[in-house]
Amino acid sequence: MPHRRHDNGGRPFDRHALELWRRSPRGRRLIELETAELGQLLPDVFGRYALQIGSWGGDGALLASAGTLHQAVLGTVGDRAAAVVADAQHLPILSKSVDAVVLPHTLEFTRSPHNVLREVDRVLNDRGRLFVLGFNPWGAWSWRARLGLRHRAFPQGARFFSAGRVNDWLELLDFDITEVRRFSLGFPWLAPRSVGDAWSPASLLAPLAEAYLISARKRVLPMNFIGRAQRAQVRPMVGVGLPATQRSALDGEPRPTA
């Protein structure tokens, strides 16, 4: 019996599914919330280029607050907001040419999220920042899908990955996780909070939040160039600091006569 290959990612959505979700009240509220969350982090990103990989937010709103000189949307489906449509697993971008990348639910709707992250690692420069928006597999939307109560406008074919799992993937690629924020539209009704915030009763429900935002930075090790070691100069231990006439006498040479 032939071996059946199992994909480790979700199924890409089409343009119709994307527009249906964007027009839904819940979809619009989610994009507004995610835009606000990114708006707290992207202003600290500087450089030339910020890139969104994936068709999700409309008209480049997710990148609007970036402090870079240029912003562009690399869509995965034909969309008015996308400057280019390409395969997220094979980016038509030069290596180390991008200062920041935003992945808005791109990992959930791709066949191989690992390949997407490797491509992101390739195109980011040594100061690169990465922001990943994802759905919590223990959140309300994931449970609705398991129970067959999926929101009618939500694109089908998504596979949800926990923030901890995505963090593990990023650490294997030498990224430092700088912040993880969790937020919800529905249950649990919690204000957005970061992992590591002061404990409160709301902390007990934070693992059930519907969505999360991961902020990461490339970890670049400094290069130490090891050259040929120079031999230390041997200094005399006797006669240092003495006048020349006295040093000559110590060496057994006659003193100069007047």
Structural class: alpha/beta
- The helix/strand series, from N terminus to C terminus, equals HHEEEEHEHHEEEH
| Spans where pLDDT lies below 50 across 5 or more residues | 1-6, 234-241
The number of helices is 6
Helix content: 10-25%
Strand order of the largest sheet: 3-2-1-4-5-8-6-7
Proportion in β-strands: 15-25%
Distance between the termini: 109 Å
The CATH class name reads Alpha Beta
Tell me the overall shape.
globular
Name of the CATH superfamily: Vaccinia Virus protein VP39
Number of extended strands: 8
How many independent structural domains?
1
Overview of the structural elements:
With 258 residues, the protein is α/β, with parallel strands linked by helices. It has a single domain, classed as Vaccinia Virus protein VP39 (Rossmann fold, 3-Layer(aba) Sandwich). Helices cover 22% and strands 20% of the residues. The protein is built from 6 helices and 8 strands. The chain has helices at residues 15-23, 25-38, 113-123, 140-146, 163-172, 244-250, and strands at residues 49-53, 70-75, 84-85, 98-104, 124-135, 175-183, 193-194, 211-218. An 8-stranded mixed beta sheet has the order 3-2-1-4-5-8-6-7, with helices on both faces. The longest helix is centred in the first third of the chain and has 14 residues, at 25-38. The protein is globular and about 45 Å long.
